């Protein structure tokens, strides 16, 4: 009888700073065997030269760690003439001309190959002025990117990001149904889904068949319309309801800790790992 695959924990080293080594060491200390790479040495991962990506890969290999995902900024962009609001792209430009975009897709595929990452995150265009906001569905670059990912042996996963055009369940489902057979999956950020008021049992069940990766962060409202991030399980995001539903539909998912807790990130990651191990049915490795 085949042994069922287990869910896994993933840690992003840049939560602890630009040097990836301390975050990797924390992963080893916490018994976490997988990494998400987003930025390092003060630069977005897709903008790093191959030799620096190779160093990151070597640091991971030395510690027996594997790269589970490249958290790329692809499609978290708009046209150069647009005026995006405050957007965190971890060192990647928000204004990118259409002529440059295929080059960045190809660069992300190469970066994933160097790192050994099987999945690459994408977004769905920034929401800017209505007349300049681009449609994600039907974007010919998406089809090109999915074909390139297939050739490279990686999978593209779309994150539900509130500052982008596809964040609510209805458009998410429409995009996933249209492109799923071409390889597109969902990089589910549960906190983002909660932010738009849709982290409900019904919505999670509808999205679950497409989920390939889960981002886990938590927050409390700060009273001024903003958010104060806290360790997973200590905020308002309804993980106690959502995680068992995801596990029931997809028993072997990667759960990536993305705390955004700036003052004590190591403590927040430690607490988040303990929370996930006690909350995901069957635990996480």
Describe this structure in words.
The chain has 285 residues and is of the alpha/beta class. It has a single domain, classed as Divalent-metal-dependent TIM barrel enzymes (TIM Barrel, Alpha-Beta Barrel), CATH 3.20.20. It is 36% helix and 17% strand. It contains 9 helices and 12 strands. 44% of the residues are buried. The model has no long low-confidence stretch (mean pLDDT 96).
Which stretches are low in confidence, meaning pLDDT under 50 for 5 or more residues running?
none
Cα-based radius of gyration, to the nearest Å: 18 Å
Structural class, judged by helices and strands? alpha/beta
Number of domains: 1
Overall form: globular
In whole angstroms, how far apart are the ends? 21 Å
What is the C-level CATH assignment? Alpha Beta
**CATH architecture call:** Alpha-Beta Barrel
| Series of secondary-structure elements, N-terminal to C-terminal | EHEEEHEHEHEHEHHEEEHEH
Draw up the topology in text.
Elements: E1 8-11, H1 20-29, E2 34-37, E3 39-40, E4 43-44, H2 50-62, E5 66-70, H3 98-115, E6 119-122, H4 140-152, E7 155-159, H5 169-179, E8 185-189, H6 190-195, H7 201-207, E9 211-216, E10 218-221, E11 227-230, H8 239-249, E12 254-257, H9 265-279
Parallel strand pairs: 1-2, 1-12, 2-5, 6-7, 7-8, 8-9, 9-12
Antiparallel strand pairs: 3-4, 10-11
Helix pairs in contact: 3-4
Gist?
It contains nine helices and twelve strands. The protein has helices at 20-29, 50-62, 98-115, 140-152, 169-179, 190-195, 201-207, 239-249, 265-279; strands at 8-11, 34-37, 39-40, 43-44, 66-70, 119-122, 155-159, 185-189, 211-216, 218-221, 227-230, 254-257.
């Amino acid at each position: 009888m085949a042994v069922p695959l287990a869910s896994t924990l993933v840690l992003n080293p840049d939560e602890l700073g630009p040097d990836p080594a301390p975050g990797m060491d924390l992963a080893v200390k916490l018994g976490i065997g997988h990494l998400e790479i987003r930025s390092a040495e003060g630069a977005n991962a897709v903008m790093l030269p191959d030799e620096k990506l190779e160093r990151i890969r070597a640091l991971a290999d030395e510690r027996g760690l594997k790269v589970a995902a490249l958290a790329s900024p692809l499609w978290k962009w708009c046209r150069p003439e647009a005026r995006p609001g405050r957007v965190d792209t971890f060192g990647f430009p928000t204004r990118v001309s259409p002529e440059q975009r295929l080059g960045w897709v190809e660069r992300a595929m190469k970066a994933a190959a160097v790192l050994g990452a099987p999945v690459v995150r994408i977004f769905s265009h920034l929401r800017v002025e209505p007349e300049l906001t681009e449609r994600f569905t039907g974007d010919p670059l998406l089809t090109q990117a999915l074909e390139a990912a297939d050739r490279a042996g990686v999978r593209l996963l779309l994150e539900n990001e509130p500052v982008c055009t596809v964040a609510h369940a209805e458009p998410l489902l429409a995009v996933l149904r249209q492109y799923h057979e071409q390889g597109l999956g969902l990089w589910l950020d549960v906190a983002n889904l909660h932010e738009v008021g849709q982290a409900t049992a019904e919505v999670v069940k509808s999205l679950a068949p497409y989920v390939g990766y889960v981002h886990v962060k938590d927050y409390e409202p700060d009273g001024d319309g903003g958010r104060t991030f806290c360790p997973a399980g200590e905020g308002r995001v309804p993980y106690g309801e959502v995680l068992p539903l995801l596990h029931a539909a997809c028993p072997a998912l990667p759960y990536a800790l993305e705390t955004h807790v700036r003052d004590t990130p190591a403590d927040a990651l430690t607490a988040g790992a303990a929370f996930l191990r006690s909350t995901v049915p069957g635990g996480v490795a």
